[in-house]
Amino acid sequence: MQGNSREVSSSQQGCHEQLEAVVRKHLAQASRRPPAAHTVAAFESVHAQVEASGKPLVLDSYCGTGMSTALLAQRHADCLVIGIDKSAHRLQKHEAGAQGHYLLVQADCGDFWRLALAAGWRADHHYLLYPNPWPKPGQFKRRIHGSADFPTLLALGGVIELRSNWQVYVEEFAQALALAGVEAQAELFTAAQPLTLFERKYAGSGHHLWRCWCQLGHNTPPRAAEHQTR
Ligand SMILES: C[S@@+](CC[C@H](N)C(=O)[O-])C[C@H]1O[C@@H](n2cnc3c(N)ncnc32)[C@H](O)[C@@H]1O
After folding, report:
1. 92 within ligand 1 shell (Cβ under 6 A)
2. How far apart are CA 50 and CA 104, in angstroms?
3. Positions of E strands within the chain
4. Domain housing 90
5. Strand, coil or helix: what is 169?
6. What is the C-alpha separation between 164 and 210, in angstroms, rounded?
7. Number of the ligand 1 atom closest to the C-alpha atom of 199
8. CA angle 153, 158, 159 (to 5 degrees)
9. Is there a domain that residue 15 lies in?
10. How many whole angstroms from 17 Cα to the centroid of ligand 1?
């Protein structure tokens, strides 16, 4: 498939110079921001169904149209998959998959993660597929690993897989994991069968695709590796 999507362009060529300081600060204190009312309502709309299902949970955060959510429900047929995206516009474009158990939720991911964690939910797998890169250096705290929601992501546990067409983003994510004492690496991969619309677009445009995955325990709260800043 051909495409003409532009590569991520940034004045930032390597990992952000504030990465360690910002990640350590967040690991020392996760976000306590109260969740937005619309995400509380979205969480409550699926809460009973998730609890009743009794199935292992797979989260597909930043799911866009939910193409990956339906495909992941086929891949993880014994699980309940929840696709989360803040955009009603994108979610409305969802084309229902034939099989599998999945839900789509319009919500802010960070808020949803905190509510899920507080409810005692834990992820078996957590997919983070092509989050917005926020490529300007000043946007670092909007990236997943630069945000105060990063410790909550870690606390939800499971096998985490992040994908991006921006190498720097994935390398930063791996470095942030290392600061939390989790070993992971950024690696190139080929998307033989695209999991998402953005993956299809980027692969069709000849972009290199990067991913980072790691296995997190369910019972180990994230702590900064080595010493923490005070
Ligand atoms: C680049 S798109 C990728 C969508 C999909 N994963 C794919 O690969 O086709 C990033 C998505 O993240 C969503 N998003 C951005 N910030 C979000 C947030 N805080 N909470 C939930 N969704 C968010 C956007 O609405 C958008 O659909």
Report:
1. no
2. 12
3. 57-61, 80-85, 101-106, 123-129, 158-164, 186-189, 209-216
4. 24-216
5. helix
6. 5
7. 8
8. 100
9. no
10. 25
| Separation between Cα atoms, residue 170 and residue 158, nearest integer Å | 18
CA gap 68, 109 in Å, rounded: 16
Residue 118, C-beta contacts closer than 8 angstroms, at least 6 positions apart: none
Q: Say what the pTM is.
A: 0.94
Q: Residue 26: CB within 6 Å of ligand 1?
A: no
16's CB contacts (< 8 A; 6+ apart) are 22, 137, 140, 146, 172
Q: Kindly report the CATH number assigned to the domain that includes residue 155.
A: 3.40.50.150
Task: Please count the residues of the chain.
Answer: 230
Residue 61 lies in a domain: yes
Question: Residue 78 falls within a domain, yes or no?
Answer: yes
Q: Which two tokens stand for residue 50?
A: 């998730």
Distance separating alpha carbons of residues 127 and 171, to the nearest angstrom: 17
Ligand 1 probe mutation, 8, 33, 62, most atoms within 8 A of CB: 62
pLDDT digits (tens, 9 = 90+) for 75-129: 999 999 999 999 999 999 999 876 779 999 999 999 999 999 999 999 999 999 9
Residue 209 counted as domain residue: yes
Ligand 1: distance of its center to the CA of 84 in Å? Answer: 8
Q: Are 199 and 64 in contact (CB under 8 A)?
A: no
Out of 20-24, 144-148, 191-195, 211-215, pick the least confident: 191-195
